[in-house]
UniProtKB/TrEMBL annotation:
Belongs to the class-II aminoacyl-tRNA synthetase family. Its EC number is 6.1.1.21. Homodimer. The gene is hisS. It comes from the Bacteria. InterPro entries: aa-tRNA-synth_II, aa-tRNA-synth_II/BPL/LPL, Anticodon-bd, Anticodon-bd_dom_sf, His-tRNA-ligase, HisRS-like_core, HisRS/HisZ, HisRS_anticodon. One of its GO terms (biological process) is histidyl-tRNA aminoacylation. It is found in: Cytoplasm. This is Histidine--tRNA ligase. SUPFAM superfamilies: Class II aaRS ABD-related, Class II aaRS and biotin synthetases. Transmembrane segments: none annotated.
Length: 425
């Protein structure tokens, strides 16, 4: 057997390690919290599902399904796929457990890893982390606005402000097929190259989103879905914008927006951050009124989003901001001797029970090394205990930012530390 000297994580699968992982947790939790404030309940779903669920749900013609799925046979040769996104799985679970037969809308929130076999680059990974919500079973423009406002509030709660919300309507069953045909006819009449014409035949909408300047120029006057909405789709879209105004959520209408998943109808949106280069989408979503029926459930509508946790972190970095408390603990214990160590171990337990974050110097390190660890931990205070203090029933409470140290009664440690931390806040 050959011996490998070391292992590396699979390409595009990030590790999240301290101290950066604190930022990851803070971002994920803040985005989830925004959904909790609107009554979304937590769902935890399998990491992989039958391949057919995504093929049918997300759409065979999408890049996600045709090029990026992590598909493998299980031990009985059934085709399974690591989830590339959350919406299809949520629909499957809602149908399977009959939530669609209970009170509507069903409002669900999830957070976790998703898998896409993409070309890895800054902000584009093969394991990506999303926070998502889905609101299922009620076709009300106010619910569209709620979902969008949650994403907006989540990003803002992190301190982000260099992003914009782009929004459009992709129409519904009554207007989209005719529009698609109209657009196809129009585009096929243009002097486009053969490859682009092939794409016009498969998905003409995607050609409108082509970034090449020559294609942009040729398609500048192409008909837009927004100008061909059915009366009801138009009324729905106008009301969504009205509710967003009422909620104070700023937006830009982008009639050329194209999403990478096939299930969208009516309202679709993307949050775009300018500090991220090519991978500028920090979140996106929309309505998917035909999805549940497509997956064998009742014909119920739905709307949701997926927010990119990794990209939100990059956006914070681009804005020079942080969402995490850089301190790992509040207090760091420095024992100077064996008896002092046992007493500090016991005090650490009592402080933690009181909700105070505590770490200690372990391994019998000298005072210098222990103080260095204390500084590195980000703690506001060190508790310094020597055997002589112990005999006198006292302990040193050292403010690590000013260097001031006061002696306090050991028996008063929890109360004194609590008071000192409260005074700092
Ligand atoms: P999506 O636009 O494919 O939508 O992904 C949502 C977000 O996930 C993106 O805006 C981006 O921030 C992040 N993301 C996607 N791919 C990567 C990647 N390779 N690396 C890093 N971040 C990435 C969905 O997944 C839909 N399920 C959203 C939805 C829910 N629509 C309705 N309900």
């Amino acid at each position: 057997m050959t011996k490998t000297s070391s292992f590396a994580a699979p390409k595009g699968f990030p590790d999240y390690l301290p101290p950066a992982s604190a930022q990851f947790v803070a971002v994920r939790d803040a985005l989830v919290h925004a959904a909790r404030l609107a009554g979304y309940g937590h769902v935890e779903l399998p990491i992989f599902e039958e391949t057919g669920l995504f093929a049918r749900g997300v759409g065979e013609s999408t890049d996600v399904v045709s090029k990026e799925m992590w598909t493998f046979p299980d031990r009985k040769n059934r085709s399974m796929t690591l989830r590339p996104e959350g919406t299809a799985s949520v629909m499957r679970a809602v149908i399977e457990h009959g939530l669609d037969r209970g009170p509507l809308p069903v409002k669900l929130c999830y957070a976790g890893p998703f898998f896409r076999y993409e070309n890895v680059q800054a902000g584009r990974y093969r394991q990506l982390q999303q926070v998502g919500v889905e609101a299922i079973g009620v076709d009300d423009p106010a619910l569209d606005a709620e979902v969008i406002a949650i994403a907006d509030a989540g990003f803002r709660s992190l301190g982000l402000d260099g992003f914009r919300l782009e929004i459009t309507s992709l129409g519904d069953d009554t207007c989209r097929p005719q529009y698609r045909e109209l657009l196809q006819q129009y585009l096929l009449g243009l002097p486009l190259d053969e490859e682009t014409k092939r794409r016009v035949r498969i998905n003409p909408l995607r050609v409108l989103d082509d970034k090449r300047p020559e294609v942009r120029e040729l398609t500048a006057d192409a008909p837009l879905m927004l100008d061909h909405l059915s009366e009801s789709a138009k009324a729905h879209f106008d009301q969504v914008l009205g509710y967003l105004d009422a909620l104070g959520v700023p937006y830009v209408v982008n009639p050329r927006m194209v999403r990478g998943l096939d299930y969208y109808t009516k309202t679709t949106f993307e949050f775009v951050h300018d500090g991220l280069g090519a991978q500028s989408g920090i979140g996106g979503g929309g309505r998917y009124d035909g999805l549940m029926a497509e997956l064998g459930g009742q014909p119920l509508s739905g709307i949701g989003f997926g927010l990119g946790v990794d990209r939100a972190i990059l956006a914070l970095e681009a804005e020079g901001k942080t969402a995490a408390d850089p301190a790992r603990v509040d207090v760091f214990g420095v024992p100077l001797g064996e008896a002092a160590k046992s007493r500090l171990v016991e005090l650490a337990g009592r402080l933690r029970a009181a909700g105070i974050r505590v770490d200690l110097s372990y391994g019998g390190r000298g005072v210098k090394g222990a103080m260095k660890s204390a500084d590195r931990s980000g703690a506001k205070y060190a508790l310094v205990l020597g055997d002589r203090d112990l005999a006198e029933g006292e302990i040193g409470l050292k403010d690590l930012s000013t260097g001031d140290q006061q002696q306090i009664r050991i028996d008063d440690t929890v109360a004194a530390v609590t008071a000192a931390l409260a005074a700092d806040r």
